[in-house]
Amino acid sequence: xxxxxxxxxxxxxxxxxxxxxxxxxxxxxxxxxxxxxxxxxxxxxxxxxxxxxxxxxxxxxxxxxxxxxxxxxxxxxxxxxxxxxxxxxxxxxxxxxxxxxxxxxxxxxxxxxxxxxxxxxxxxxxxxxxxxxxxxxxxxxxxxxxxxxxxxxxxxxxxxxxxxxxxxxxxxxxxxxxxxxxxxxxxxxxxxx
Length: 193
Known about the structure:
With 193 residues, the chain is α/β, with parallel strands linked by helices. The protein is 48% helix and 19% strand. The chain has helices at 32-59, 61-64, 82-105, 141-153, 162-171, 175-184, 187-190; strands at 2-7, 13-16, 22-27, 68-71, 74-77, 111-115, 122-124, 129-133.
């Protein structure tokens, strides 16, 4: 099912969330026929994305329904202590790991905070304060390192322009593959813990 949201905006866009909900955002003045035409043009793309989402949701259905959890990419039993254990592991692992990687690659940051983001793995502000999603502990360690180094690269380039991506790629020969794998785990941020 496709949900159409009319808003004060200039262009049409389509968003598909990790649960497969398709949302078309449309300017207030656009006719229904134009929206329908836009959706028809985007149907192959929509189908492709929905297929990927369905595949991920099938693969990780036990994670979605919280009968299982993930720690460092490995499926584990989910119990009443899972979230507290996850936070505890994150508090022990992530600050040590960011310190280690920052020293190894001579990248400086000011502070580290752990947060519960709903749509991102981390952030870095202009003062080089880095925040990481504690749910990172659920994904593979090489992906955790990728996110940490991504944020550390923002201490050098506070943007996503060419220089930033060149720096990031200098740390990973397989940067695009890591980014693609990381995107497969984006559903984790949407799970309410």
